[in-house]
Amino acid sequence: MATVTGLYIYPVKSARGMPRTRVRITAGGFEWDRHWMLVDADGKFITQRTHPQLARIVPEIGADSLTLTTADLPPLRLPLEPRGEAIPVRVWDYVCTALDQGLVASEWLGRALGQSIRLVRVSPLMERAANPKFAGSTYAPVAFPDGFPVLVCNEASLAYLNQRLPQAIPMDRFRPNLVLSGLPAFAEDRIDSLRIGDITLRLVKPCTRCIIPSVDHLSGAPSTDPFPVLRTFRFDRALRGVTFGENAVIATGSGSVLEAGSDCVVTFEESAVLNT
Asked: How far is the CA of 56 from the CAs of 25, 69, 173, in angstroms?
C-alpha cells in the first residue's frame, strides 16, 4: 500500500507547476495538464532546457480562464474555451496543428522571455498519443507533455538521492504529476500498476531526465544539479539516459477525481523483488 502525497498540473508546458489537492482524470492525464505550450517562429516547442526563465511564469486555472503572472508584468488572462487560428507546431518529432492564442499573448510572453514567442493550446482535433511500444494495448492520448500522460515519483527515491547531493533539492524539480509515499526508494521501477478507487494507472516507462531538474523551480536560476550523482547509479543502458520517476498511462477511471491523501493498491511486476 502507498499513499498519494502530491498532485501537480502544469497547464503551460515548462512553466511553473500548480500543486492540487484534487484533480480530474481524463484519458490523456490530469485535466488541463500541458494544454498550452510556447513555440518559436518555426513552431518548435520551447522548454526550460533553453529558456529556464519559464520557471518564473506562474499559471492559475480559474472557472473560465487561464491566468499567467510573472514579475513586472500585468496578468495575462486567456479563455479556457478552445479558440484561435490553427497553426502547425512540433513537439519533438511529432508535428500537429495547435491553436494560436493571439498577438496579446505573444507580446506578453515576448516581454517575459525577451524574444519572439507564440503561445498555442491543444486543438480538440489533435490525435497525439503515447508511444505504443511502451503503452502497449492502452491507447493513451496526450496533449503537450514530452511523451506520456502522467509522471509518477516516489518520496523515498528523492530522499535517497538527497543524501548523496551536496544540497537537497525539492521534488518540484522533477516536475511530477503524482507523488507517492510509503514505498522503498526506487520501488517505482518495479511497479506494474497503481489502483486508487476506480482509477488505475499503468507504469510503462522510466522517465529519462534532462537538465531541467538543475534549474531552481522558483527563480529559473541554475542550482544544484542532480544529474552527475544520478548517473552513478541510475543510468539505463537500454534507454541511454539517466532515469528518475516512471511514466504512466490511464488504464481506467477517466472522468473520476483523484485526491491527495488517497491510498493506492500497488501491483508489482511478477519478477519484482523489493529490498525493504
From this structure: 27, 8, 13
Q: What distance in Å separates the CA atoms of residue 26 and residue 100, rounded to the nearest whole number?
A: 23
Q: Rounded CA gap, 25 and 46, in Å?
A: 26
What mean pLDDT comes out for the span 93-100?
Answer: 95
If phi > 0 it is left, if psi is from -120 to 50 it is alpha, else beta; for residue 255 that is left
Tell me the pLDDT tens digit for each residue of 41-93: 999 999 999 999 999 999 999 999 999 999 999 999 999 999 999 999 999 99
Cell readout for 212 is 531541467
pTM attached to this predicted model: 0.95
Strand partners, 1: none
Q: 197-213 burial string, b = 16+ CB within 10 Å, else e? A: eebbbbbbbbbbbeebb
Query: In this structure, what C-alpha cell is assigned to residue 163?
Result: 543524501
Give me the DSSP letters along 146-195. Answer: SS-SEEEEEHHHHHHHHTTSSS---GGGG--SEEEESS-TTGGGGEEEEE
DSSP assignment letter at 36: E
CATH homologous superfamily for the domain 2-30+130-268? PK beta-barrel domain-like (2.40.33.20)
Characterize the bridge pairing of strands 199-208 and 94-100. Answer: unpaired
> What is the C-alpha to C-alpha distance for residues 170 and 157, in angstroms, rounded to an integer?
12
Q: Residue 271: pLDDT band by 50, 70, 90 thresholds?
A: low
Q: Tell me the domain boundaries of the chain.
A: 2-30+130-268, 36-122
